[in-house]
Amino acid sequence: MKRSLIPFSGLYLLFLAACSSPQEPVSIIPQPVEIEYGKGNFKASSEIPIYFQAGNEEIFGIANYLAAFFGPSKINTPLLELNGKKLPGKGIFLLLDPDIENYEGYVLEVSGKRIIIKGGGSQGVFYGIQTLRQMLPGELESPELAENISAITIPRLKVTDYPAFEYRGMHLDVARHFFPVSFIKKYIDLMAMHKMNNFHWHLTEDQGWRIEIKKYPRLTEVGAWRKETLIGHGRQRPFEYDGQPYGGYYTQDEVREVVAYAAARFINVIPEIEMPGHATAALAGYPELGCTGGPYEVITRWGIFEDVFCAGNEQVFTFLEDVLSEVVELFPSALIHIGGDECPKTSWKACPKCQARIREEGLADEYELQSYFIHRIEEFLLTKNRNIIGWDEILEGGLAPQATVMSWRGIEGGIAAARMGQNAIMTPVTHCYFDFYQAEPETQPLAIGGLTTLEKVYSYDPVPEELTEEEARLILGAQGNVWTEYMKTSGHVEYMAYPRAIALAEVVWSPKETRNFEDFSKRLQNHFKRLDVLDVNYFKEPLTE
Ligand code: ACM
Ligand code: ZN
Fold this sequence. Notes:
34% of the residues lie in helices and 18% in strands. Helix 2 runs parallel beside helix 3 (122-133), helix 5 (181-193) packs parallel to helix 7 and helix 9 (314-330) packs across helix 12 (366-383). By secondary structure, it is α/β, with parallel strands linked by helices. The radius of gyration is 26 Å and the shape is elongated. The protein has two domains: 10-161, Chitobiase/beta-hexosaminidase domain 2-like (Chitobiase, domain 2, 2-Layer Sandwich); 167-533, TIM Barrel, CATH 3.20.20.80. Residues 1-21 have low confidence and may be disordered. Bound molecules: acetamide and zinc ion. Zinc ion binds next to helix 11.
C-alpha cells in the first residue's frame, strides 16, 4: 500500500501545484507600477465582445483600435456600447474612472470572465490596451500570422499603472535624410506601444526644408533639394560627394494625416522650425533673408554653417511669422519648437543691419541679439496661444519668459531653466542621443561618434540631483533624439533608435525604484519576438550574461 500511495500523492501534489502555483510573471515594457497576480486565467476563443463606455468618441476610437488587433485572427470582437454601471458577461470592458487621478493612468483587471480597463482619461484606457497587447500572442501583430490565432489565455491579474513623467518623447530628424509618411506612422506606432506621448518632428535644416508652406513655395521647390550628399564622416577630409540629387518634403495634407494618426495614439506632434541658425535651405529659396543676400545653396555635408537668418531685417520676422502661422494651423501642439541651437554669430558681426539692431535695441552683443530674436518669436507665438520650446542655447543672452528648455549639451540647461522656474525637457547627449554608437564602433555602421549603450540609456535619471523637489517638478521628462546624418534608410533609423528608445520609455514611465537592468533585459528578450513580428530592424544588444 505504502509504496503505491507515494507515487499517487506525488502526482496529486503536482496536479495541485499546476492549479494553484503563482502565475508566470507577465512581461511588460515599460514595467507597470504594480502587478498583482490571481489564480487561473482568462480564456477565450472565437468571440470576445469589446464593450466601450457610451457617449465618448475617444473611447469608441480606442475600442476600434483594439478590435483591429484581432481583425485578422479567428477571434471575433464585436463592439458593443455599454450603458449603465452593470457589466454584462464575458468580454473586454473599456471605461473611464474619475477615481483614477492621473489622466494617463489605468487599472487593468483580468478575471476569469472579464478584462476590465479603467482609465483616468482616454489616454489611460489606451495605455491599458498597450499593456494588454503585450499579454496577447505576438502573432496577432502580423496579419498573416494572426490567421492562425483562434484563442487567447491571459493570467488573472490586476495592473495599476501611471507614468513617472508627463513628457515622454522621441525626436526624428527628417531633414538630413528624408523618410516617407508610411515610416513616420510606423515610428509613431512604436512610440505608442511603449507609452511615449510626444513626437518631436525636426522638419527644417541646412540640408533640407521638409514642410510645405503655401505662402513660400520656394522653401520646398528649392529648399527641399540638395544637389548631392557627402560620403563618409563629416570630419573626414577631403570631402567626397555622391553626385546624386536628394530631397523630399511633406505636403500639408500629409502633415495633417500624420498629426491625426499620432493623435489617435495619444501622441502630440511638436514641429521644429529651426531659427536663427540651421536655416541655409530656407535661405537658398529666399536669399534676401540672409545677412549677405546670398546666393545660398542647400548644404550637402554635415556641420554647423555660418549663413543664418538676418536678425536685423524686418522681412525675416514677417517671413517667420507667416511660416509659423501656417504651422500652428497644422499642429495643435501647445509647444512649438523653434530650434535656437548652434547659431554662429559670424554673419551677424559683419552685417550692418544686425549691428544697427544691436544699437537700436541697446543689446550688449550678438548673444543678446539671438535672445531678442527668440523673444520676438515667443511673443508672436503667444498671440497664437502657443509656447515656444528651444534647445538650451536659448538660455544665452536671456531666456524668453515662458519658454521650455530642451537640455541637450548636458543637464545644465535643464537645471538653469528649472532654477528660473521654467519647464525643461532632458535630452542630454550623454544618454539620449541615439545617433551615437550603441556598441564598439568597429562592430557598427558609421555613426556620428560617442558610445551610448542600452544600459547607459537605462541608467538615466531625468531629474538632476542638484534640484529641490519644487524645481524637480519642472523637469517634464526626457526624449531620445535621432539625428540622421548617418542614417540613409528607415531601417537604419530603427536600428539606431531600437532598443534604446525602449530603455528610455521605461526610464520615463516606470517608477525609479522598480528599475532594474537585468530584469529589463529579460523582458526585452521576450519583447524582441514582438518586434520581429512587427518587422522592426532593432539592434540586438549583446545583453549581460
Ligand atoms: C543639437 O543636437 N544640435 C540640438
Ligand atoms: Zn544680418
